[in-house]
Amino acid sequence: MVDETFEKEMLHELELQFQRYPDMQPEDAVKFVFQGMLGVGHLLSDRTAVTHYIENEMSGLEPDPGEPLFERLSPAWCRLNLRRAMAEHIPPSVIAGMMTASDFETRFSRKEAADVFLRLAETKEPRFREPDLTDVLLNEKRLPSHSSVYHDRYHPAYRVISTFWIRHMSAVSAITEILNGTERKIVTIDGPCASGKTTLAARLAAVFDAAVAHTDDFVVPHAMKTKERLAIPGGNCDDERLAGEVAVPWKNGGAVRYRRYDCCMDRMMNEEELPDRQLLILEGCYCNLPSVRQYADLRLFVSAPEELRMMRLHRRESPESLRRFTEIWIPLENAYFSAYGLPASGDIIIE
Fold first, then answer.
1. pLDDT for the residue numbered 2
2. Whole-structure pTM over 0.85, yes or no?
3. Among 22, 135, 244, 288, which residue has the least CB neighbours within 10 Å?
Protein backbone atom coordinates (compact mmCIF):
# COMPACT_ATOMS: atom_id res chain seq x y z
CA MET A 1 0.00 0.00 0.00
CA VAL A 2 1.29 3.45 -0.93
CA ASP A 3 1.75 5.73 2.04
CA GLU A 4 -0.20 8.95 1.62
CA THR A 5 2.77 11.09 2.57
CA PHE A 6 5.00 9.25 0.08
CA GLU A 7 2.48 9.84 -2.71
CA LYS A 8 2.01 13.51 -1.88
CA GLU A 9 5.75 14.15 -1.83
CA MET A 10 6.24 12.35 -5.13
CA LEU A 11 3.44 14.28 -6.82
CA HIS A 12 4.91 17.51 -5.45
CA GLU A 13 8.23 16.62 -7.07
CA LEU A 14 6.43 15.86 -10.31
CA GLU A 15 4.84 19.30 -10.27
CA LEU A 16 8.31 20.81 -9.86
CA GLN A 17 9.46 18.77 -12.87
CA PHE A 18 6.70 20.27 -15.01
CA GLN A 19 7.84 23.73 -13.92
CA ARG A 20 11.48 22.94 -14.68
CA TYR A 21 10.69 21.15 -17.96
CA PRO A 22 7.54 22.80 -19.37
CA ASP A 23 7.61 20.64 -22.52
CA MET A 24 7.13 17.44 -20.51
CA GLN A 25 4.57 15.08 -22.00
CA PRO A 26 2.23 12.61 -20.24
CA GLU A 27 4.58 9.70 -21.03
CA ASP A 28 7.36 11.57 -19.23
CA ALA A 29 5.12 11.69 -16.17
CA VAL A 30 4.59 7.93 -16.53
CA LYS A 31 8.35 7.41 -16.47
CA PHE A 32 8.65 9.73 -13.47
CA VAL A 33 6.05 7.81 -11.44
CA PHE A 34 7.57 4.47 -12.47
CA GLN A 35 11.06 5.50 -11.36
CA GLY A 36 9.82 7.23 -8.22
CA MET A 37 8.12 4.05 -7.03
CA LEU A 38 10.05 1.13 -8.54
CA GLY A 39 13.47 2.76 -8.48
CA VAL A 40 16.52 1.27 -10.12
CA GLY A 41 16.13 -2.47 -9.60
CA HIS A 42 14.85 -3.18 -13.08
CA LEU A 43 18.10 -1.83 -14.57
CA LEU A 44 20.64 -3.65 -12.43
CA SER A 45 22.79 -6.41 -13.85
CA ASP A 46 26.49 -7.12 -13.64
CA ARG A 47 28.17 -4.06 -12.11
CA THR A 48 30.99 -4.14 -14.65
CA ALA A 49 28.46 -4.05 -17.47
CA VAL A 50 26.62 -1.16 -15.82
CA THR A 51 29.91 0.73 -15.48
CA HIS A 52 30.79 0.23 -19.15
CA TYR A 53 27.32 1.34 -20.21
CA ILE A 54 27.67 4.56 -18.21
CA GLU A 55 31.20 5.10 -19.56
CA ASN A 56 29.91 4.85 -23.12
CA GLU A 57 27.12 7.33 -22.46
CA MET A 58 29.35 9.81 -20.66
CA SER A 59 31.89 9.71 -23.49
CA GLY A 60 29.34 11.52 -25.65
CA LEU A 61 28.47 14.18 -23.06
CA GLU A 62 29.97 17.50 -22.04
CA PRO A 63 30.33 18.36 -18.33
CA ASP A 64 27.73 20.85 -17.12
CA PRO A 65 28.34 22.41 -13.68
CA GLY A 66 25.10 24.37 -14.02
CA GLU A 67 22.89 21.29 -14.12
CA PRO A 68 21.58 20.05 -10.75
CA LEU A 69 23.39 16.96 -9.53
CA PHE A 70 20.21 15.45 -8.08
CA GLU A 71 16.55 15.70 -8.96
CA ARG A 72 14.17 14.05 -6.51
CA LEU A 73 11.58 11.64 -7.78
CA SER A 74 10.11 10.58 -4.45
CA PRO A 75 11.19 10.20 -0.82
CA ALA A 76 13.04 7.03 -1.87
CA TRP A 77 14.50 7.71 -5.31
CA CYS A 78 16.21 10.48 -7.29
CA ARG A 79 17.94 11.10 -10.59
CA LEU A 80 21.70 11.69 -10.71
CA ASN A 81 22.47 13.83 -13.75
CA LEU A 82 25.52 12.58 -15.62
CA ARG A 83 26.69 15.90 -17.06
CA ARG A 84 26.91 17.40 -13.57
CA ALA A 85 28.52 14.20 -12.30
CA MET A 86 31.23 14.67 -14.92
CA ALA A 87 31.77 18.26 -13.74
CA GLU A 88 32.09 16.91 -10.18
CA HIS A 89 34.58 14.23 -11.36
CA ILE A 90 32.38 11.37 -10.21
CA PRO A 91 33.55 8.36 -12.26
CA PRO A 92 31.24 5.82 -13.91
CA SER A 93 32.37 3.08 -11.53
CA VAL A 94 31.18 5.08 -8.53
CA ILE A 95 27.86 5.89 -10.20
CA ALA A 96 27.39 2.20 -10.95
CA GLY A 97 28.27 1.46 -7.33
CA MET A 98 25.65 3.89 -6.05
CA MET A 99 23.11 2.27 -8.33
CA THR A 100 23.83 -1.25 -7.15
CA ALA A 101 24.02 -0.07 -3.54
CA SER A 102 20.59 1.55 -3.96
CA ASP A 103 18.69 -1.68 -4.43
CA PHE A 104 17.71 -1.73 -0.76
CA GLU A 105 14.74 0.62 -1.03
CA THR A 106 11.20 -0.72 -0.81
CA ARG A 107 9.72 -0.81 -4.27
CA PHE A 108 6.06 -0.85 -5.01
CA SER A 109 4.24 -2.99 -7.55
CA ARG A 110 3.39 -1.85 -11.04
CA LYS A 111 -0.28 -1.98 -10.06
CA GLU A 112 0.36 0.46 -7.22
CA ALA A 113 2.27 2.75 -9.59
CA ALA A 114 -0.63 2.63 -12.06
CA ASP A 115 -3.10 3.44 -9.28
CA VAL A 116 -1.07 6.49 -8.29
CA PHE A 117 -0.97 7.62 -11.89
CA LEU A 118 -4.75 7.20 -12.22
CA ARG A 119 -5.32 9.28 -9.10
CA LEU A 120 -3.05 11.90 -10.60
CA ALA A 121 -5.15 11.87 -13.77
CA GLU A 122 -8.34 12.30 -11.79
CA THR A 123 -7.14 15.27 -9.78
CA LYS A 124 -4.40 16.99 -11.74
CA GLU A 125 -4.23 16.44 -15.46
CA PRO A 126 -6.90 15.25 -17.94
CA ARG A 127 -4.22 14.35 -20.52
CA PHE A 128 -3.09 11.52 -18.25
CA ARG A 129 -6.34 9.61 -18.74
CA GLU A 130 -5.27 7.92 -21.97
CA PRO A 131 -5.54 4.15 -21.36
CA ASP A 132 -2.20 3.39 -23.01
CA LEU A 133 -0.36 5.42 -20.37
CA THR A 134 -1.45 3.20 -17.51
CA ASP A 135 -0.96 0.12 -19.69
CA VAL A 136 2.76 0.93 -19.80
CA LEU A 137 2.85 0.80 -16.02
CA LEU A 138 0.84 -2.42 -15.82
CA ASN A 139 2.60 -4.35 -18.58
CA GLU A 140 5.58 -6.22 -17.10
CA LYS A 141 7.11 -6.53 -20.58
CA ARG A 142 7.24 -2.78 -21.17
CA LEU A 143 9.41 -0.07 -19.67
CA PRO A 144 8.33 3.58 -19.75
CA SER A 145 10.33 5.84 -22.07
CA HIS A 146 10.73 9.57 -22.36
CA SER A 147 8.78 11.25 -25.12
CA SER A 148 10.57 12.31 -28.28
CA VAL A 149 9.69 15.89 -27.40
CA TYR A 150 11.42 15.56 -24.03
CA HIS A 151 14.45 13.87 -25.61
CA ASP A 152 14.85 16.55 -28.28
CA ARG A 153 14.30 19.46 -25.92
CA TYR A 154 16.16 18.39 -22.76
CA HIS A 155 18.57 15.58 -23.78
CA PRO A 156 18.15 13.62 -20.53
CA ALA A 157 21.24 11.82 -19.24
CA TYR A 158 20.89 10.47 -15.72
CA ARG A 159 20.81 7.39 -13.50
CA VAL A 160 18.26 6.58 -10.81
CA ILE A 161 19.72 6.08 -7.33
CA SER A 162 18.46 6.15 -3.75
CA THR A 163 17.91 9.53 -2.09
CA PHE A 164 20.19 8.11 0.61
CA TRP A 165 23.09 9.29 -1.55
CA ILE A 166 21.89 12.91 -1.60
CA ARG A 167 22.54 13.08 2.14
CA HIS A 168 25.87 11.26 1.86
CA MET A 169 27.31 12.67 -1.34
CA SER A 170 29.98 14.62 0.52
CA ALA A 171 31.38 11.30 1.76
CA VAL A 172 31.22 9.74 -1.71
CA SER A 173 33.01 12.71 -3.30
CA ALA A 174 35.69 12.83 -0.61
CA ILE A 175 36.43 9.11 -0.87
CA THR A 176 36.53 9.33 -4.66
CA GLU A 177 39.12 12.09 -4.37
CA ILE A 178 41.49 10.16 -2.08
CA LEU A 179 41.36 7.01 -4.24
CA ASN A 180 43.47 8.64 -6.93
CA GLY A 181 46.39 6.23 -6.89
CA THR A 182 47.18 2.69 -5.94
CA GLU A 183 48.11 3.16 -2.28
CA ARG A 184 45.86 1.68 0.37
CA LYS A 185 43.65 4.19 2.13
CA ILE A 186 41.76 4.24 5.43
CA VAL A 187 38.48 6.05 6.08
CA THR A 188 37.14 6.27 9.64
CA ILE A 189 33.43 6.62 10.43
CA ASP A 190 32.90 7.85 13.98
CA GLY A 191 29.85 9.16 15.82
CA PRO A 192 27.40 8.37 18.62
CA CYS A 193 25.53 5.09 18.91
CA ALA A 194 22.55 4.54 16.59
CA SER A 195 23.50 7.48 14.36
CA GLY A 196 23.80 5.34 11.22
CA LYS A 197 27.54 4.58 11.09
CA THR A 198 27.22 0.87 10.37
CA THR A 199 24.64 1.42 7.61
CA LEU A 200 26.78 4.09 5.99
CA ALA A 201 29.89 1.90 6.19
CA ALA A 202 28.13 -1.03 4.54
CA ARG A 203 26.78 1.08 1.69
CA LEU A 204 30.05 2.91 1.09
CA ALA A 205 31.82 -0.45 1.10
CA ALA A 206 29.43 -1.64 -1.61
CA VAL A 207 30.10 1.47 -3.72
CA PHE A 208 33.90 1.37 -3.40
CA ASP A 209 34.42 -2.38 -2.96
CA ALA A 210 36.05 -1.69 0.39
CA ALA A 211 37.01 -3.83 3.35
CA VAL A 212 35.32 -2.98 6.65
CA ALA A 213 36.42 -3.38 10.27
CA HIS A 214 34.30 -2.43 13.28
CA THR A 215 35.50 -0.95 16.55
CA ASP A 216 32.79 -3.02 18.29
CA ASP A 217 35.09 -5.99 17.62
CA PHE A 218 37.85 -4.27 19.61
CA VAL A 219 36.07 -3.55 22.86
CA VAL A 220 38.35 -4.32 25.81
CA PRO A 221 37.59 -7.70 27.46
CA HIS A 222 35.62 -7.69 30.70
CA ALA A 223 38.73 -8.37 32.74
CA MET A 224 40.23 -5.11 31.46
CA LYS A 225 37.13 -3.00 32.16
CA THR A 226 38.44 -1.62 35.41
CA LYS A 227 37.28 1.70 36.83
CA GLU A 228 40.71 3.11 36.03
CA ARG A 229 40.55 1.96 32.39
CA LEU A 230 37.00 3.22 31.83
CA ALA A 231 37.91 6.54 33.44
CA ILE A 232 40.23 7.18 30.49
CA PRO A 233 38.30 8.77 27.58
CA GLY A 234 37.97 6.04 24.98
CA GLY A 235 39.27 3.44 27.41
CA ASN A 236 36.46 1.08 26.48
CA CYS A 237 38.20 0.45 23.14
CA ASP A 238 41.31 -1.66 22.75
CA ASP A 239 42.82 0.90 20.42
CA GLU A 240 46.31 -0.53 20.76
CA ARG A 241 45.12 -3.79 19.23
CA LEU A 242 43.01 -2.00 16.61
CA ALA A 243 45.99 0.06 15.49
CA GLY A 244 48.55 -2.75 15.72
CA GLU A 245 46.52 -5.53 14.13
CA VAL A 246 44.54 -3.54 11.55
CA ALA A 247 45.58 0.04 10.81
CA VAL A 248 49.37 -0.41 10.73
CA PRO A 249 49.55 -3.58 8.60
CA TRP A 250 46.90 -2.16 6.28
CA LYS A 251 48.89 1.01 5.62
CA ASN A 252 52.05 -1.07 5.21
CA GLY A 253 50.38 -3.07 2.45
CA GLY A 254 50.44 -6.38 4.28
CA ALA A 255 47.80 -8.93 5.11
CA VAL A 256 45.48 -7.94 7.95
CA ARG A 257 44.60 -10.78 10.29
CA TYR A 258 42.85 -10.22 13.59
CA ARG A 259 40.48 -11.82 16.07
CA ARG A 260 37.15 -10.21 16.84
CA TYR A 261 36.18 -9.94 20.48
CA ASP A 262 32.68 -11.18 21.27
CA CYS A 263 31.43 -9.07 24.14
CA CYS A 264 28.44 -11.30 24.93
CA MET A 265 30.59 -14.42 25.26
CA ASP A 266 33.60 -12.50 26.57
CA ARG A 267 36.05 -14.32 24.34
CA MET A 268 38.15 -13.84 21.23
CA MET A 269 36.83 -15.40 18.06
CA ASN A 270 38.80 -17.28 15.42
CA GLU A 271 41.32 -15.33 13.40
CA GLU A 272 40.06 -13.86 10.16
CA GLU A 273 41.65 -11.94 7.31
CA LEU A 274 40.40 -8.76 5.70
CA PRO A 275 40.08 -8.87 1.91
CA ASP A 276 42.85 -7.18 -0.05
CA ARG A 277 41.31 -3.92 -1.25
CA GLN A 278 42.48 -0.37 -1.85
CA LEU A 279 40.12 1.04 0.77
CA LEU A 280 39.54 0.06 4.39
CA ILE A 281 36.62 1.56 6.32
CA LEU A 282 37.07 1.62 10.10
CA GLU A 283 33.59 2.03 11.51
CA GLY A 284 32.50 2.74 15.04
CA CYS A 285 32.83 4.98 18.02
CA TYR A 286 36.43 5.41 19.23
CA CYS A 287 38.00 5.08 15.76
CA ASN A 288 39.28 8.64 16.20
CA LEU A 289 41.45 7.81 19.17
CA PRO A 290 44.93 9.25 18.44
CA SER A 291 46.58 5.84 18.05
CA VAL A 292 44.16 5.05 15.21
CA ARG A 293 43.23 8.36 13.61
CA GLN A 294 46.87 9.08 12.71
CA TYR A 295 46.51 6.47 9.96
CA ALA A 296 43.24 7.84 8.54
CA ASP A 297 43.27 9.43 5.12
CA LEU A 298 39.72 10.68 5.60
CA ARG A 299 37.52 11.04 8.69
CA LEU A 300 33.72 11.00 8.64
CA PHE A 301 31.62 11.86 11.67
CA VAL A 302 27.96 10.81 11.60
CA SER A 303 25.50 12.88 13.60
CA ALA A 304 21.79 12.36 14.26
CA PRO A 305 19.25 13.96 16.61
CA GLU A 306 19.13 12.36 20.04
CA GLU A 307 15.43 11.54 19.77
CA LEU A 308 16.03 9.62 16.54
CA ARG A 309 18.94 7.71 18.03
CA MET A 310 16.96 6.81 21.13
CA MET A 311 14.05 5.65 18.97
CA ARG A 312 16.42 3.34 17.10
CA LEU A 313 17.87 1.99 20.34
CA HIS A 314 14.39 1.33 21.74
CA ARG A 315 13.58 -0.56 18.55
CA ARG A 316 16.65 -2.76 18.42
CA GLU A 317 17.77 -3.29 22.03
CA SER A 318 16.31 -5.29 24.91
CA PRO A 319 15.26 -3.33 28.03
CA GLU A 320 18.40 -4.46 29.86
CA SER A 321 20.65 -3.59 26.93
CA LEU A 322 18.96 -0.21 26.59
CA ARG A 323 19.62 0.46 30.27
CA ARG A 324 23.33 -0.26 29.77
CA PHE A 325 23.41 2.10 26.82
CA THR A 326 21.81 4.98 28.71
CA GLU A 327 23.68 4.44 31.99
CA ILE A 328 27.11 3.30 30.76
CA TRP A 329 27.92 3.34 27.06
CA ILE A 330 26.42 6.69 26.03
CA PRO A 331 28.10 8.59 28.90
CA LEU A 332 31.41 6.93 27.95
CA GLU A 333 30.94 7.97 24.32
CA ASN A 334 30.13 11.55 25.33
CA ALA A 335 33.24 11.69 27.52
CA TYR A 336 35.34 10.51 24.56
CA PHE A 337 33.82 13.10 22.18
CA SER A 338 34.39 15.86 24.74
CA ALA A 339 37.95 14.87 25.56
CA TYR A 340 39.07 14.80 21.93
CA GLY A 341 36.91 17.66 20.65
CA LEU A 342 34.94 15.55 18.22
CA PRO A 343 33.95 16.14 15.57
CA ALA A 344 37.34 17.73 14.99
CA SER A 345 38.59 20.15 12.38
CA GLY A 346 38.95 18.34 9.07
CA ASP A 347 36.22 15.79 9.83
CA ILE A 348 33.43 15.56 7.27
CA ILE A 349 30.20 15.77 9.25
CA ILE A 350 27.34 13.65 7.95
CA GLU A 351 24.07 14.95 9.38
1. 84
2. yes
3. 22
The DSSP output letter for 271 is: E
Which residue, 158, 137, 156, is CA-closest to 21?
Answer: 156
CB 56 within 8 A of CB 177: no
Pairing of strands 77-81, 211-214: unpaired
* Coil/strand/helix, residue 231: coil
64 by Cβ neighbours in 10 Å (0-12 / 13-18 / 19+) ranks as middle
- Sequence-distant (6+) residues with CB within 8 A of 214 are 198, 201, 282, 283, 284
pLDDT at 278 over 80: yes
Cβ of 76: how many Cβ atoms within 10 Å?
A: 22
| Other Cβ atoms within 10 Å of 116 Cβ, number | 22
Query: DSSP secondary structure string, 179-200?
Result: -SSSS-EEEEEE-STTSSHHHH
Type of residue numbered 68: P
Closest residue by Cα to residue 268 from 243, 245, 291, 296? 245
Amino acid at 209: D
Segment 163-181, tens digit of pLDDT: 999 999 999 999 999 998 8
What is the per-residue pLDDT across 201-227, written as a single tens digit (0 to 9) for each?
999 999 999 999 999 999 999 888 888
Q: Convert the pLDDT of each residue in 316-347 to its tens digit.
A: 999 999 999 999 999 999 999 999 999 999 99
What distances in angstroms separate CA 210 from CA 55, 159, 184, 204, 253, one per listed residue? Answer: 22, 23, 10, 8, 15
Q: Tell me the HSE value of 274 on the side-chain side, using a 13 A CA sphere.
A: 29
Which residues, in sequence order, are bridge partners of residue 313?
A: none
pLDDT for 78: 97
